[in-house]
Design brief:
416 residues; alpha+beta; Immunoglobulin-like; five-stranded antiparallel β-sheet; elongated
Length: 416
């Protein structure tokens, strides 16, 4: 078919019928209040543009707020699919640099800015510096005190069988060597001590005897102000028991160059049963309630001791003898005694001349003791209490090796 004929047929062919456009609903916003003839997809696009213009303003752009969240825009649909194309919102994403400590370093937000927290390496450096300074201090301290240390002992030569040996060196003697032993101080027999170093204060009590302000009156009442200078002492059980005796006893001692003064106060809860028998001199006075005074001039307890026994009845016994015996009962001195009885106590005052005690005026230190006897009451077979100033570790008062030590101030006696 010729081309001109084909074109003529196409021009004469009737056009396909066109579907009428749907009418917009009445009352919908459009032009002039009439139904809009704009396609719905296009009408939505116009409405979206108007909304955007009303929010941002004409001719002005509002910068998007920074956000750390990335917003992905949706997929644009074509108008044929019935979904209006959406404009992707401008998104500002931040790229954070890695902290100085690397990945995993904690961050701290201050004033809207992110700052790296304290680096652990810095902490380790500070601790190491402190330890180093402490070590330097210890070394300096050791070097400083090393100068004051005593110098090392010089090597000593020891004579051995077959040669000599120099201690402190690495040389070895040719023959058998002998080991030197430190010189041990020979043990002093108990009771023969002649130095205070041999009499520990925790085992042998010590007392300083001061001078009196004035000569006390010997009346048994203990109300003379001279006793205020004396140091009060208490008795304990003679066998060393730690319990307190029922009959508490306290005494005071003063001395001049010529006289020794002793005052004793004894509490007695059983005054009605007290043993009180008048006796002749040196005749069994120790069997009654009584006080005994012992003196050994010097520190050697093996020398003779001098003893006085005074009962509550005023009976007196005096004698001397070494050890546990009192043989020289003929030894008598002109001592003065006075006894006073109270409601639940009794007291004793004594004045003993030192010129009647051999070597007493020449020895500033004495071995000394004072004891009290509370004998068995009527119907009893055993003594009630035997108490002593010194710990005799025995119920017997005749234990001079355990006597204490006194320093007579008037004779130049001193205690360390």
């Amino acid at each position: 078919m010729p081309a001109e004929h084909a074109v003529a047929q196409m021009a004469q062919a009737p056009a396909p019928p066109q579907a009428p456009a749907p009418a917009a609903p009445s009352g919908r916003p459009g032009t002039g209040g009439h139904p809009s003839m704009v396609d719905p997809p296009q009408q939505d696009i116009v409405r979206m543009r108007r909304r955007t213009t009303s929010q941002t303003g004409l001719g002005r752009r509002t910068p998007a707020a920074p956000s750390t969240r990335v917003v992905r825009s949706g997929r644009s649909a074509s108008p044929a699919e019935g979904t209006p194309a959406r404009r992707a919102r401008p998104v500002r994403s931040e790229i954070r640099p890695l902290p100085a400590g690397g990945i995993g370093t904690p961050m701290a937000r201050r004033g809207g800015e992110e700052k790296a927290a304290t680096d652990p390496t810095m902490i380790y450096m500070i601790v190491g510096a402190v330890l180093l300074l402490f070590g330097i201090f210890l070394v300096g301290y050791a070097l400083l005190f090393k100068k004051d240390a005593p110098p090392p002992r010089a090597p000593q030569e020891q004579t051995a069988a077959g040669g000599t040996e120099r201690t402190g060196s690495s040389s070895t003697p040719a023959a058998a060597k002998t080991t030197s032993q430190p010189e041990s101080r020979p043990a002093v027999p108990l009771g023969r001590q002649s130095s205070l170093a041999d009499l520990p204060a925790d085992q042998f009590p010590r007392l300083k005897i001061p001078k009196p302000i004035s000569v006390p009156s010997i009346d048994g009442r203990l109300d003379d102000r001279s006793w205020s200078r004396a140091i009060p002492q208490r008795l304990r059980f003679a066998d060393g028991r730690e319990t307190r005796p029922l009959g508490d006893t306290e005494f005071w001692v003063l001395a001049t160059e010529k006289m020794l003064y002793v005052a004793v106060r004894m509490s007695e809860p059983e005054m009605a049963q007290i043993v009180k028998t008048p006796r002749k001199r040196d005749e069994g006075v120790w069997q009654d309630d009584c006080v005994e005074i012992f003196i050994i001039p010097g520190l050697d307890a093996s020398k003779p001791k001098y003893q006085w026994v005074v009962s509550i009845a005023g009976s007196v016994m005096d004698g001397s003898g070494a050890g546990s015996e009192v043989k020289n009962e003929a030894w008598n001195i002109e001592a003065k005694f006075a006894v006073f009885e109270g409601k639940d106590y009794w007291t004793l005052e004594a004045a003993l001349p030192l010129d009647g005690i051999p070597d007493a005026e020449k020895a500033p230190l004495w071995r000394f003791n004072l004891t009290r006897n509370r004998p068995a009451r009527e119907g009893q077979s055993r003594p009630v209490e035997n108490t002593s100033w010194a710990n005799l570790q025995s119920p017997s008062n005749q234990t001079p090796a355990r006597f204490g030590v006194v320093a007579v101030e008037a004779l130049g006696g001193k205690l360390p």
